[in-house]
């Protein structure tokens, strides 16, 4: 098993955002984490990346206990997060943003890896010397994913990657995630577009008020009408955001 999370607790003062969560991701597997707003999904990812310190539990990646490790140590281990809202540096160029993804690397292959990103995303190549602020929402998401890829990840975690994107760009995004997975990268996907997430992922967990209330294969969860009504809004995508892609 690539990632094993057991009994994870995340608290902000007296508020328990994540409550004793157990979760696994296998080598080369796509796993979705679903649930309504406020269910604890982002807090879960932030704890896995090391942005917040867990109040309890254990995080093991490829047999190594990362629970007390820094975010940098987790990146070196091959764990990368594409955060909600993309969080690119809009005052920096596209190329400079990509370089930020390789800030911990000490090898000589960074530029060739960036060239590979440009081959995958021609729009970014055309704008490599422009400020990232000129990019559309979809292009910014591609930049955020490209930046994560510069860390040479074994596991990519994505927090609501389709948020605010046009339907066409959402399709392109999910196609891209499938491509990355076929290249051997495991994916942990937090996504409110439950239908597309379950179509892409092999398994899924459902969070409610910080606790894992359901888990199973995507096929099992899609067949469970009570589940979709109670936790996933009938399986419909999240309310539409202004298109940006």
From TrEMBL:
GO terms for molecular function: ATP binding; ATP hydrolysis activity; branched-chain amino acid transmembrane transporter activity. SMART domains: AAA. Residues 3-234 form the ABC transporter domain. Gene3D superfamilies: P-loop containing nucleotide triphosphate hydrolases (3.40.50.300). InterPro entries: AAA+_ATPase, ABC_transporter-like_ATP-bd, ABC_transporter-like_CS, BCAA_Transport_ATP-bd_LivF, P-loop_NTPase. Keywords: Amino-acid transport, ATP-binding, Nucleotide-binding, Transport. One of its GO terms (biological process) is L-amino acid transport. Pfam families: ABC_tran. The keyword ATP-binding applies. The keyword Transmembrane helix does not apply. CDD domains: ABC_TM1139_LivF_branched. PROSITE patterns: ABC_TRANSPORTER_1, ABC_TRANSPORTER_2. Belongs to the ABC transporter superfamily. PANTHER family: HIGH-AFFINITY BRANCHED-CHAIN AMINO ACID TRANSPORT ATP-BINDING PROTEIN LIVF. This is Branched-chain amino acid transport system ATP-binding protein. It comes from Amorphus orientalis.
């Amino acid at each position: 098993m690539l990632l094993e999370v057991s009994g994870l607790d995340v608290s902000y003062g007296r508020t328990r955002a994540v409550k004793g969560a157990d979760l696994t991701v296998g080598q080369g597997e796509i796993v979705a984490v679903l649930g309504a707003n406020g269910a604890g999904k982002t807090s879960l990812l932030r704890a896995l990346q090391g942005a917040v310190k867990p109040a309890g539990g254990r995080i093991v990646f490829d047999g190594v206990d990362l629970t007390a490790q820094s975010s940098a140590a987790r990146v070196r281990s091959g764990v990368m997060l594409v955060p909600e809202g993309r969080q690119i540096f809009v005052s920096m160029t596209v190329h400079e943003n990509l370089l930020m993804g390789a800030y911990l690397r000490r090898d000589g292959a960074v530029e060739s890896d960036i060239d590979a990103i440009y081959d995958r995303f021609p729009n970014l190549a055309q704008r490599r010397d422009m400020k990232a602020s000129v990019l559309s929402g979809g292009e910014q998401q591609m930049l955020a994913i490209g930046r994560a890829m510069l860390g040479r990840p074994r596991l990519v975690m994505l927090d609501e990657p389709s948020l605010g994107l046009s339907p066409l760009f959402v399709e392109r995004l999910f196609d891209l995630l499938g491509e990355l997975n076929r290249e051997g990268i495991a994916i942990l996907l937090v996504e409110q577009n439950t239908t597309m997430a379950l179509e892409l992922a092999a398994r899924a967990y459902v969070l409610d008020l910080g606790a894992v209330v359901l888990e199973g294969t995507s096929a099992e969860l899609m067949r469970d009408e009570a589940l979709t009504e109670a936790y996933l809004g009938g399986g419909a995508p999240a309310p539409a955001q202004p298109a940006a892609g």
